[in-house]
Amino acid sequence: MPDFLIGPFANGPHVEPFDVFIRLLSALFFGAVIGGIYKFTRRELHTGLQFPTTLLLLCVLIAMVTQVIGDSVARAFSLVGALSIVRFRTVVRDTQDTAYVIFAVIVGMAVGAKSLWVASIGLGVMALAEGLLLLRAKAITSPEPEYILKVRTGLDCDLDGIVSSAIGSLLSEQELVSMGTGKQGASLDGAYRVRPLAGQTPPNLIKTLQAVEGVLSVQMLRRGFDLD
């Protein structure tokens, strides 16, 4: 190493560069596995690669931060203060996504702190838990997806009665989520959580409801993909 680089870094903690490289590569591997587990268990929601990529990078970054901190309490508090200026404005809508973020952070910390067994065992137990939850969800969940059905009628209409009489026999589940007025009090808006019977499609349900007198508009959103 050139002499002008030796002086400024002479008092830093001695860490073998090759060891750091191996730890970061290990964190990269664990992050990829975490992203893969997330992608596999969320494949029915058609999630993109953005969140799994974030988990991978987060695992590597936390492993790097853990090595920077080392055993220094003062350095740890300094990093907390420095990182607190970062504002995360992206809302994590699924609480399980939050668990995955924490999972990536913990695994990254374990790798950075040289606790490879903690990271390996934690990864295995987490994968087992997700597998069991996935099997349970498949056992109790109907193959037909859930939708949010939004219906707008005239103010003098029996909205709940219209929905039940028109498509109630075509649904396996129907639950009122919200009811209110729209168009400055000129209409009645209702939202329902519904699950169609096998063979019933959203276009068929929408056409059936739209044909009822008094119905002004109908909208169906796949649950988990609703925009508001």
UniProtKB/TrEMBL annotation:
Native organism: Paludibaculum fermentans
Transmembrane segments: 20-41, 53-70, 99-128
InterPro entries: DUF4956
Keyword entries, A-Z: Membrane, Transmembrane, Transmembrane helix
Pfam families given in the database record: DUF4956
Protein known as: DUF4956 domain-containing protein
